[in-house]
């Protein structure tokens, strides 16, 4: 085996047939003080030939290649111990794929997005550290979390559409009520409350969309203080319409102490835990159906007190806890099965199960210094218990705070282009409310021809261009390249409702100052514009 050159700290193997992606990954490693020897190949065959004589510190491989072959060909296979850590990249993520690559020996799984490629060095360094520290560990918490999110996506597919329809219907109803109040010139406290409710529905819709798009990515969880009972109710309301009619779900909130309502976590992560438990209970039901009963209580653990669970004493930090119980009248489990349910990849559902749901529950609860356990008897149903610490914090009631004065504009002129009229009009009003003068267009081709006719002495007609990406005839990226020929100093922002990886990368290369995802909100727009105009 060849010895690595002493001038390099680590040797990284990169197998990827998209040269643009390789370039982004190269740049990420160039930002490090460590010296990396990057061995880049565009085919599996070339990589295999190199590996016959060399061993990298880490391999970063694509899943699919246009020339044929799969990155999984470089993995050791089921039950075999890899000799070096491997990160698998893909533009496509599914429950079956992520489970397959993890079982075959990959240490991590990355969905290719602009952000994940730019952060590849950090991902690689973390993977190498974990490899050194836990070489024999099959599945760590973060990989389990990402894998579980992909698995849950299949279960959520039907309910997502239902929840979005509910939210959109609520937005429409509140909007009509507010419009009637304005027309009748009767603005009351109810009007203001309905405006807040409408905006909260919009926020919830955007959270759902964001959750779908972020399922397979490694993202830092944002901690939020919320009423844990409300989140349980929301998840149950989401699941009821898609469950079989012969499966009854009942939820009872037994808490009596109004001081013990709150929990601090990522709300999506918490609701995923409830989703896992309730879905497992449904799958345990016989064909004739049955009942799922969820209860929420508050329990106090005193200093020096042990909690008796399954005839064993367990320690919890003293304080108040939320006790969540999910009981079903399903087929139950034997003691041998009960001992294995929290093990990664163990599943009784051989056809559709991944064995990721309950390990995810356990890791979530353990990370928050709580406890989860189960009781069951064969043919007598099961009960799952979760204890999570109550939070002394309170939610931020000011959901839509006023923007600081310094984030508002000073009459700068903005040219806004979007073919969707309602988004164009609402964005125009938002920008004007921020203190900008806005000119709009809904046709990129007509706008370009108009600018060409008006072009005279190369004087900038606007202070900023904001263009949508996906428009008929001429996309925003191409429109900017044409306008740039006339006005090379005109700053621009590209926005889109669908984040394609190369859009953002090409946008930055072409000179766009920022990249907006639609629905980011007025505060995000204000901060972006302030940053551009203050330079």
Strand order of the largest sheet: 2-1-3-4-5
Given the C-alpha coordinates, what overall shape results? Answer: globular
- Category by helix and strand content: alpha/beta
Q: What are the low-pLDDT stretches, counting only 5+ consecutive residues below 50? A: 1-6, 214-220, 351-355
Gyration radius, in Å: 27 Å
Task: Give the amount of beta strand, in percent.
Answer: 15-25%
Terminal Cα separation, in Å? Answer: 53 Å
Percent range of helical residues:
40-55%
- Per DSSP E runs of 2 or more residues, the count of β-strands stands at 19
Number of helices: 16
Largest sheet: 5 strands, parallel
Whole-number mean pLDDT: 79
Attribute tags:
disordered N terminus, 535 residues, 5-stranded mixed β-sheet, alpha/beta
Structure characterization notes:
The protein has 16 helices and 19 strands. The protein is α/β, with parallel strands linked by helices and 535 residues long. The strands form 5 sheets. A 5-stranded parallel β-sheet has the order 2-1-3-4-5, sandwiched between helices. Strands 7-9-12-14-13 form a 5-stranded mixed β-sheet, with helices on one face. A hairpin with a 2-residue loop joins β10 and β11. The radius of gyration is 27 Å and the shape is globular. The two termini are 53 Å apart.
């Amino acid at each position: 085996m060849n010895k690595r050159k002493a001038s390099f700290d680590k040797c990284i193997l990169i197998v990827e047939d998209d040269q643009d992606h390789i370039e982004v990954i190269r740049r990420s490693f160039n930002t490090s003080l460590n010296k990396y020897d990057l061995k880049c190949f565009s085919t599996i065959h070339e990589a295999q030939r190199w590996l016959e004589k060399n061993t990298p510190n880490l391999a970063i491989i694509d899943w699919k290649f246009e020339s044929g072959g799969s990155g999984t060909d470089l993995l050791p296979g089921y039950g075999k111990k890899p000799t070096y850590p491997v990160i698998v990249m893909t533009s496509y993520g599914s429950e079956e794929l992520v489970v397959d690559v993890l079982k075959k020996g990959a240490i991590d799984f990355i969905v290719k997005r602009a952000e994940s490629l730019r952060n590849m060095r950090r991902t690689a360094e973390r993977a190498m550290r974990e490899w050194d520290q836990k070489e024999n560990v099959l599945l760590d918490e973060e990989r389990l979390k990402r894998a579980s999110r992909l698995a849950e996506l299949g279960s959520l597919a039907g309910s997502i559409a239902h929840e979005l329809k509910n939210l959109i219907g609520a937005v429409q109803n509140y909007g009509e009520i507010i419009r009637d109040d304005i027309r009748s010139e009767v603005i009351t406290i109810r009007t203001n409350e309905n405006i807040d409710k409408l905006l909260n529905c919009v926020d919830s819709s955007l959270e759902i969309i964001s959750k779908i798009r972020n399922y397979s990515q490694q993202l830092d969880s944002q901690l939020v203080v919320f009423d844990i009972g409300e989140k349980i109710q929301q998840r149950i309301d989401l699941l009821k319409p898609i469950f079989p009619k012969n499966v009854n779900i009942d939820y009872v909130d037994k808490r009596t102490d109004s001081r013990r309502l709150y929990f601090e976590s990522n709300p999506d992560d918490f609701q995923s835990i409830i989703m896992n438990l309730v879905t497992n209970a449904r799958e345990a039901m016989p064909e004739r159906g049955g009942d799922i009963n969820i209860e929420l209580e508050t329990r106090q653990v005193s200093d020096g007190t042990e909690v008796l669970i399954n005839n064993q004493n367990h320690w919890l930090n003293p304080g108040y806890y939320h006790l969540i119980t999910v009981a079903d009248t399903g087929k139950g489990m034997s003691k041998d099965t009960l001992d294995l349910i929290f093990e990664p990849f163990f599943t009784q559902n051989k056809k559709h199960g991944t064995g990721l749901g309950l390990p995810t529950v356990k890791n979530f609860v353990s990370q928050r210094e709580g406890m989860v356990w189960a009781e069951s008897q064969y043919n007598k149903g099961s009960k799952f218990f979760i204890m999570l610490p109550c939070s002394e914090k309170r939610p931020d009631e000011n959901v839509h705070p006023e923007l600081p004065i310094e984030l508002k504009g000073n009459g700068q002129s903005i040219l806004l282009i979007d073919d969707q009229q309602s988004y164009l009009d609402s964005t125009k009003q938002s920008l004007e409310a921020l203190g900008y003068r806005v000119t709009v267009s809904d046709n990129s081709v007509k706008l370009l021809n108009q600018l060409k006719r008006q072009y005279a002495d190369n004087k900038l007609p606007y202070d900023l261009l904001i263009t949508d990406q996906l428009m008929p005839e001429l996309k925003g990226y191409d429109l900017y390249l044409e306008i740039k020929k006339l006005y090379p100093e005109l700053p621009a922002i590209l926005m889109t409702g669908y984040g394609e990886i190369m859009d953002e990368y090409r946008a930055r290369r072409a000179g766009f100052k920022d990249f907006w995802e639609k629905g980011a909100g007025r505060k995000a727009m204000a901060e972006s514009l302030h940053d551009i105009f203050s330079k």
